[in-house]
Each structure stands twice: as structure tokens, then as C-alpha cells.
């Protein structure tokens, strides 16, 4: 029975991953360590909270004492590090916490794992640390080309720079100590339980509340969209079969401009929910500082080595996602009535 330490499991991708894994395997144990920042929400895990193979521990990945204790008290086989400050706009306003959690938190986890996994002649068998990274570490593309694992790192925002720094520390633990690690770099995820500060849930939320739909710059920046369950499946494959020390890019060639995403959501909601939702809600606002123009993943390596393929097309995935938000209105209402409103007002008042 393998024991997974999943960090940031109360966030968007982490909670989807825990649910995916507990549905797929009944012979694994998952310990979810999460600080429960504004982005952490235990509601996401309601369907598994009574599962005997699941345990939640509230802790900060930067806290040496709590993390060491977790490794000493549990025979952890795999670490999957999702915990991070994840929003680019917040990183532009407050970079420090991104360095703290994303860089120092990662090093704290690496150290704690190394301390219990390392033996006199290497590392115990069957252990692995997986760092969940991002395609943003590669920087920005022009109109052509794709990010490959061999593409040089060239991050621009405080967020992507902190993620790239963390990747370099993971690489250092492999290069220096031969610690068993993998790094995955995926494109923009979408699906259930995504916090509404991010483009897709923000637009759904604002449409349903008849608010302005803020589109940065000319709306022609491109992101490569990945349905969150396809991402979870890829991580499972990398943990089980990824070659040690390797980086795997994850993406399914689903590039869309931001304005296309916004108009797709408006069309679906207008046709299926409320025909007063209209493109007139769109407001082109001041651009994000240092806004990366285009991301696009080349997933050849993970396809050829591990046989991963995304199962969900963008058209199917966006409909499932919108439907999920419609069916889980209370989840969004709870967020809307909390601290998020202050963030939203401050963030968008000058736009
Ligand atoms: P999220 O913001 O929804 O969730 C982050 C989680 O980490 C939250 O539950 C939060 O409480 C927790 N957390 C934050 N700081 C912590 C700390 N110091 N200690 C413990 N827990 C802490 O993020 P997400 O979108 O689910 O992203 C998860 C990971 O995937 C991140 O590492 C992110 O960089 C990466 N990633 C995300 C995307 C995407 O499109 N969302 C794409 C590529 C990579
Ligand atoms: O590429 C992977 C990354 O994707 C992850 O590493 C990050 O954690 C995740 O947040 C995401 O970053 P982006 O900056 O691409 O996602 P976001 O949803 O913030 O923005 C998507 C695009 O939409 C981007 O070009 C900015 C634009 N945008 C965003 C918001 C919030 C708008 O036009 N209006 C908005 O209000």
C-alpha cells in the first residue's frame, strides 16, 4: 500500500487529483497537507472526507517542524507537490509570498523527504518526489513553435520565476544527491473547483451575476487549455512510470485566444441559461503587466514514453465545466460572499 503526501490538496488541481486517485485505486493512502489559504477549500473534498484511505492535515509547507513530523510519523512513498501561490495577477502585486511558498516551501519538502529517504548508498527503493510545475517557466512564444522539455527556462512574472526557481532546486536535488524526482510542466487547467480569480471561472461567475467581463489587452493572448482530469491522469502516469530526473510537459494542443474563451462561455450560457447574457458585457481593460503572449505545449515526450493522451476535447471540457458551475452554485456563492469580493474590487477597480 503506497502512501502519497499530496500538498495543496484543497486547491483546484490538488483536490481533483485526490478524488481521481481515490476513485481509481483502493490500495493507496493519501495524506493531504494544506495551509488553507484563500485558495484552499475543504468543500472540494467532501466526497472523500470519510474515505479511510484519506487524511487531512492543516500545515504550511514552509513549516519545518510540521513537515518533518509528517515524514517521521508516516512511511511516505510519494510526494506530489501542488501547494503554491498560483495566480499571476496576485504575484505582480505581492511577490514575497510567492518566493516563500513556491521556493522555500519546495526546498523544505525536498529536505524533509531526503532526510528520511536517503540511505548510506543512495535512496530507499520506490520513493519519488514529483514537483507540479508549469509551462509558464518557459516564458512566452511568438506565433509559431511549442515548448519542449529542452526549451530554455525564461520566466517573466514573479509567479513563473518562483516556479522556475523551485524547478531548479528540484533539479539540484537530483543532480547533487540523485534524489528520485520528476518535474511536470502543464498548460492552463480548467474544470471543477477552480477558484474564480482565474479566467474561465471568473467569466462564468461574472456572466451569472451580470457583471462586466474584463478582457486584458486585445484579448488575443493564447493559452493551451487542459481539462483537469487529463492532467491528473498524466501525473499518475509520471509517478508510476516516469524516468527519474526527467521533466514531462503535459498539454493537448488546445490553443485558444482569451476572447474566444470568453465568447464561447457567453454563447453557451446565453443559449442554455439566460438569453440576456450578451457579448456587450465584455470590457477590454488595461493589460496585465508583462503579459505573456502565447503558451503552447509539445506533449510528444509524455505521449511516446508513457502513452498519455488527453481524453477531453476543449469543446466537451468547457461544457462540462460550465455545467459543473451551474450545478454547484452554492460553492461559488460561498466564495463570492467571502474575502474574494475585496480582492476582486481592488484588482478590477482601476481596470
Ligand atoms: P490553487 O491556488 O487552486 O491551490 C493551491 C493550494 O495550495 C491551495 O489549497 C492552498 O491553500 C495551498 N497552499 C498555498 N500555500 C501553501 C502553503 N504555504 N502550505 C501549504 N499549502 C499551501 O492552485 P492550482 O491551480 O490547483 O495549482 C496547483 C499547482 O499546479 C500549483 O503548483 C501551480 O503552480 C500548478 N499549475 C497550475 C496550473 C493551472 O492552470 N491552475 C497550470 C500549471 C501548473
Ligand atoms: O499556463 C499555466 C498557468 O496557467 C498556471 O501555472 C497558473 O497557475 C494559472 O493561473 C494559469 O496562469 P494564466 O495567467 O495563464 O491564467 P489566468 O486564468 O489568470 O489568465 C488566463 C489568460 O486570461 C491570461 O492571458 C490573462 C487573461 N485574463 C485573465 C483574467 C483573470 C483576462 O483577460 N481577464 C481576466 O480577468
UniProtKB/TrEMBL annotation:
Pfam families: GDP_Man_Dehyd. Residues 5-321 form the NAD(P)-binding domain. Its EC number is 4.2.1.46. InterPro entries: dTDP_Gluc_deHydtase, NAD(P)-bd_dom, NAD(P)-bd_dom_sf. It catalyses: dTDP-alpha-D-glucose = dTDP-4-dehydro-6-deoxy-alpha-D-glucose + H2O. GO terms for molecular function: dTDP-glucose 4,6-dehydratase activity. Belongs to the NAD(P)-dependent epimerase/dehydratase family. dTDP-glucose dehydratase subfamily. PANTHER family: DTDP-D-GLUCOSE 4,6-DEHYDRATASE-RELATED. This is dTDP-glucose 4,6-dehydratase. The gene is rfbB.
